[in-house]
From TrEMBL:
Taxonomic source organism: Protea cynaroides
Record family assignment: Belongs to the SNAP family.
Gene3D superfamilies: Tetratricopeptide repeat domain
Highest taxon of source: Eukaryota
Name under which the protein is recorded: Gamma-soluble NSF attachment protein
GO MF term list: soluble NSF attachment protein activity; syntaxin binding
Compartments (UniProt record): Membrane
Length: 388
C-alpha cells in the first residue's frame, strides 16, 4: 500500500468518509490511514499543495477518532507544506489550529512551541503575525505558570521588534520578560532583561524613558544590588555627563557582553544621539516659566548658615548660574573641590549627592560640614515640575 499511487489513495479515502445506501457511517479509521499514506507520497513527490490537503484531511480524521495529539501533528505537517508553497496565511492558521489541539490535550508547552514554529517561519514574510504568535505563545505558558519555558519566545519577539525598529515595544516586551523571570525566581535573567530595556531606550535616543525605566526597575531589590544595575547606573551617568568614551567603554563591558546578541549589537552602537546637555534646545523646546542669570564670581564659596547649631556650611554663590523652570529631566552637576570631585544630582523635589562628598539633603539647602572652595564645572541646573 505504501507504494500505491497517492491520487488513488486519496480517492479511496474520500469514498470511505461519505455515506451511501450501503454505508451508513463513515470509516474514519481506514480513511485516515489512507490520507496519511497519500500525504507522505505527495510530499516525496514534492507535490506540496496536494500533500498539504492530504495532511489536513488526515488531521481531521484523527480528530474524528478522538486523537487530538495526532491531529495536531498532522496539522503541523500541513503548515510545513503551506510554507513550501508560500501560503503564509495558511502557515499561521495551521500552526494556530495545531496549538489549539495541543491545548485540548492539556499540553501547554507543545501548544506554545507550535505557535513559535509558525512565528519563526513568518518573521520575514509576515512580521506582525509573527510577533502576535510569539506573544500568544508566551501567554499560554504564563497562564500555566511555566514562565521559564517562555524565555526563548520573549527573546524572539524582542528580536523581531528590534528588526522593525519598534524600540518602545521591544523594551516593553523585555520588561514583561523581567516580570516573568521574577515570578519563577530567575533573578539573573530578570536583571539582564531590565538592563536590556534601558539599553534599547538609549539606542532609541529616549534618555528620559531610559531613566524612568531605570528608576522603576531599581524599586526591585533583586535588580538594585545586581551587576546589571551598576552597569545601568554608570551608563546613565555617562550620558548625563556627556562622556562619549565612557559610554562606549560600558557598551563593551563584560556585563553588556553577557546580554543577548541583539542587545549587544545595540549597546556597541551607543551613543546614537547627542549626549551633551544643550541649553539652547532646552530653552527653545521646553515650556520655560522663568529665567534668572546670577552674577559671575571667581569661585563658589561655602559660608556658615545662620542659626545652625551644627556649624554646617551652605553654598552661597556660583560662578555663573542659569536657573530656569522647565520640565526637562534632572541632571548631575560636577563640583570639583581642592581634593576631590562631588556629584550633585538635581531632581524635582530634592538633591542627591555622592556619599563620599559629606553633603546631605535638608530643607534649609545643600550643606557641607567644612568650608571649602569649589569650582563649578557644569553651570546649568534644571528643575522639573516647578511653577505648574
Amino acid at each position: 500500500m505504501a507504494g500505491s499511487d497517492p491520487e488513488k489513495l486519496m480517492t479511496k479515502a474520500d469514498k470511505l468518509t461519505k455515506l451511501t445506501i450501503t454505508r451508513w457511517s463513515a470509516d474514519w479509521k481506514s480513511a485516515t490511514q489512507l490520507y496519511e499514506q497519500a500525504a507522505v507520497g505527495f510530499r516525496l513527490a514534492k507535490d506540496y499543495e496536494k500533500a498539504k490537503i492530504a495532511f489536513e484531511k488526515a488531521s481531521k480524521g484523527q480528530e474524528m477518532l478522538s486523537s487530538p495529539w495526532d491531529a495536531a501533528k498532522h496539522m503541523e505537517s500541513a503548515a510545513s507544506m503551506a510554507k513550501e508553497i508560500g501560503n503564509w496565511r495558511e502557515v499561521a492558521d495551521f500552526f494556530r489550529t495545531a496549538s489549539n489541539l495541543y491545548i485540548e490535550c492539556g499540553r501547554s508547552q507543545p501548544a506554545a512551541d507550535a505557535l513559535a514554529k509558525g512565528a519563526r517561519l513568518l518573521e520575514d514574510a509576515a512580521s506582525e503575525e509573527a510577533i502576535q504568535m510569539y506573544t500568544d505563545a508566551c501567554s499560554i505558558l504564563e497562564e500555566d505558570d511555566k514562565e521559564q519555558m517562555a524565555f526563548d519566545h520573549y527573546r524572539a519577539a524582542t528580536s523581531v521588534y528590534i528588526k522593525l525598529q519598534r524600540y518602545d515595544d521591544a523594551a516593553t516586551f523585555l520588561l514583561r520578560w523581567g516580570l516573568a523571570a521574577d515570578k519563577c525566581n530567575a533573578v539573573h535573567s530578570q536583571c539582564k532583561a531590565y538592563l536590556s530595556a534601558i539599553i534599547v531606550y538609549l539606542y532609541a535616543d529616549d534618555f528620559k524613558q531610559a531613566q524612568k525605566c531605570y528608576n522603576d526597575c531599581s524599586q526591585i531589590d533583586a535588580f538594585l544590588g545586581s551587576d546589571q544595575n551598576r552597569c545601568a547606573t554608570k551608563l546613565l551617568s555617562a550620558y548625563e555627563e556627556g562622556d562619549v568614551e565612557e559610554i562606549k567603554r560600558i557598551g563593551h563591558s563584560s556585563t553588556v557582553s553577557n546580554l543577548d546578541h541583539m542587545i549587544i549589537r545595540l549597546a556597541r552602537k551607543l551613543p546614537t544621539g547627542d549626549v551633551n546637555f544643550d541649553l539652547h534646545s532646552v530653552l527653545v523646546q521646553s515650556p520655560v516659566r522663568s529665567l534668572f542669570l546670577a552674577p559671575i564670581r571667581s569661585g563658589v564659596l561655602l559660608q556658615p548658615s545662620e542659626n545652625n547649631e551644627e556649624g554646617n556650611m551652605r553654598i552661597s554663590a556660583f560662578f555663573f548660574q542659569f536657573i530656569f523652570i522647565t520640565r526637562q529631566p534632572a541632571i548631575t552637576l560636577k563640583l570639583q573641590t581642592l581634593s576631590s570631585s562631588i556629584s550633585l544630582r538635581l531632581c524635582p523635589d530634592k538633591a542627591y549627592l555622592d556619599n563620599r562628598s559629606g553633603f546631605r539633603v535638608c530643607d534649609a539647602g545643600i550643606r557641607c560640614p567644612t568650608p571649602i572652595l569649589l569650582r563649578l564645572h557644569l553651570l546649568v541646573m534644571v528643575f522639573i515640575g516647578i511653577g505648574k
